[in-house]
Amino acid sequence: MAGKDHSDMQCNEFDALLSDALDKVLTGPKAQAFQAHASSCPICGPLLAEAEMGKHWLEQLVEVEPPAHMVDKILAATTGIETPGVHRPAAQVPWFERATGWAQGVGQFIVAMSRQPRLAMSVGMAFFSLSICLSLAGVRLADLRRVDLRPSAIRRGYYETSGKVVKYYENIRFVYEIESRVREFKRVTSPREPAPAKQERHPRNDSSEQPEQEHNHRQGNGQIILAASDSPPAVDLAWVKPATLRRNP
Amino acid sequence: MEEAQVTAQLIRRCIAGDAAAWEELVQRYHRRIYNICYRFVGSAGDAEDLTQEVFIRMYRTLKSYEVERGAFMTWVTTMTRNLLVDHFRRTKQERLTDSLDVAPSERDDAMPLSEQIRDGRPAPDARAQAQQLGDAVHRAIGKLSPDLREAVILRDLQDMDYKQIATVLKVPEGTVKSRINRGRAELARLLQRTYKQVM
Ligand SMILES: [Zn+2]
């Protein structure tokens, strides 16, 4: 508000009296000063007209009817079959109560099952099978401790196991390579033995200028060895690097 | 028995675990709460959800209401208003900015409000026209800022006095009056803008 003086009334004073004026509770000299200000102030005059109009329109609005089923829905959401202050609505049950309820359910299931000999037998067999599988995998239930189930222990176990698997794989590869080299060497040194039947050559679809030879790509520590079937075998054990040998006990 | 006494007795029965008393309380107040919500949020579906939320909260906190202090209406309205403010903040991003003029067909076919008001003859379908006017005002309320909107709803639609409104909104009475003035004036400007010429 501009705060200018119009007929002994300030704009902020006019604003404070505006709602009373529209409620028709403003009387006497104050009402006269109010009217005088409204007719002379360029801000408060239009404000009075607009506020009056807005009030008039708001009063035209009638109360709307709530949906018919609403009370039933509210009662179902609040009480259900319960009574206020006695029980909480189902949706508000805390997690630990739900967890307790769940555990009780599991307990009841186990108790009920132990009374059914056939079911108990099946569960027993399942457990037996599982323990056999675990013991074959090198896991002994008696060795399992709580400390092994910590994330750090699980992580350590994972790396140890994957390390063992890699070592096992490399050992097998090493043995396989030695065997194949020995076979090749035998074949070359004993000419009476017929060479293994050549694999039927399939015409290549691509037009690349590759020599017609069976490529046996073996990748050992980054080195590719081409075992050409026609040419004498290159007995090359260079790919068996000391590092690989060291890893094998 | 006076209204306040009836309500106080009803609440005591509710707290004691009387399901019938709770149902009566819901019957008595759901219309009012629904109307506040409907005028504030604008849509019937949201209003229904929010009304239900108000009663769920009321059900949980009824024990904390001090029956001796009275003013249950103010207590309930404050609870409703707080939920509406929460809802407003929650849905701030989702709201569309332009909704006053809504369906173009509705606007094009509608007789200008100024003509509706000036026209002294009995309307061919007075009820339909009243409905149209009501829709326009309802949409205009939705265009007001939340501060002004809640003030005019509580004063002009719920007939609360300035002191009660000041309690609900937690602001001085002078602020309440100022917001009501500005809310009414802004509403008139919005409707004038829509219908160009008025009264
Ligand atoms: Zn002024």
How does the SSE layout of this entry go?
The complex is a heterodimer of chains A (249) and B (199).
Chain A: H1 11-22, H2 28-40, H3 44-60, H4 70-78, H5 95-114, H6 117-136, H7 151-189, E1 217-220, E2 223-226, H8 242-247
Antiparallel strand pairs in A: 1-2
Helix pairs in contact in A: 1-2, 1-3, 2-3
Chain B: H1 3-15, H2 19-41, H3 44-61, H4 72-90, H5 104-109, H6 113-118, H7 126-143, H8 146-157, H9 162-169, H10 173-195
Helix pairs in contact in B: 1-2, 2-3, 2-4, 3-4, 4-9, 8-10, 9-10
Bound molecules: zinc ion.
Zinc ion binds at residues 1, 6, 11, 14, 37, 41, 43-44 of chain A.
What kind of assembly state do the chains in view correspond to?
Answer: heterodimer
Q: Helices and strands of chain B, in N-to-C order?
A: HHHHHHHHHH
| Strand line-up in the sheet with most strands of chain A | 1-2
Helix content of chain A: 40-55%
Brief synopsis:
Chain A is mainly alpha-helical. Chain A has helices at residues 11-22, 28-40, 44-60, 70-78, 95-114, 117-136, 151-189, 242-247, and strands spanning 217-220, 223-226. A two-stranded antiparallel sheet of chain A has the order 1-2.
Characterise the protein shown here.
The complex is a heterodimer of chains A (249) and B (199). Chain A has 249 residues and is mainly alpha-helical. Chain A has helices spanning 11-22, 28-40, 44-60, 70-78, 95-114, 117-136, 151-189, 242-247, and strands at residues 217-220, 223-226. Chain A has a two-stranded antiparallel sheet with strand order 1-2. Chain B is mainly alpha-helical. Chain B has 2 domains: 1-96, Rna Polymerase Sigma Factor, Chain: A (Orthogonal Bundle); 125-199, Winged helix-like DNA-binding domain superfamily/Winged helix DNA-binding domain (Arc Repressor Mutant, subunit A). Chain B contains 10 helices and no strands. Chain B starts with a helix and ends with a helix. The model of chain B is unreliable at 98-112 (pLDDT under 50). Zinc ion binds next to helix 1 of chain A.
